[in-house]
Sequence to fold (186 residues):
Amino acid sequence: VDLSLILLHHPMHDRDGKTVATSLTLNDTQDLARSACTFGIHTFYVAHPSAMQRKLGRRLKIHWQEGFGATYNPSRKEALTLVELVHDIDEAILKIELRTGKRPKLIATSAKAGALRVGFEALRQDLQTSDHPHIIMLGTGSGMAPELLERAQIILEPIYGPGEYNHLSVRAACAIILDRLCARRS
Ligand code: SAM
Fold:
């Protein structure tokens, strides 16, 4: 399956439910790039509306691809090649449409339960037989604003622990989601 990943920073909810643009972090970018590379993701888009923040992301990519980082840590270099900075989800959709000739299906993720959530196993099966590109959408802050969630054709069921507490970092959530959807099964 042609599967891409996008880390979104706007429109995001903050703790008070206000719509904000969160800051791009170098930690998220390189950690998610390594998970994306491990699980065979085609492209890892990092979306931010601020040109300054996208420039920061590009500087990170260059550092690990050409700078000291490339020689010091070649596996990090390989993971960072998957990273593409974009303005928003629409730019990522357009890039995939140009590359594949098909409009990608959006898979939203969230810790919050809700109607029409798709299970991991069902989605894993669908992805294995689908000839359609898909993008998994990951949020930051306190999760994606409704207008972003509503754009998705698929909303993945939350990862749940045994209890009520459910505050995973996007890095932890991404690795769990990709493992459940893409891991090789012996
Ligand atoms: N409660 C927020 C939420 O809506 O998920 C937490 C946001 S968390 C810091 C950032 C992102 O990690 C979320 O937008 C989602 O993509 C992912 N995430 C966090 N916890 C998750 C969970 N339990 N199940 C699925 N995705 C999760």
In short: Strands lie at 3-8, 12-13, 19-20, 44-47, 83-86, 105-108, 117-118, 134-138, 154-156. The two ends are 19 Å apart (CA to CA).
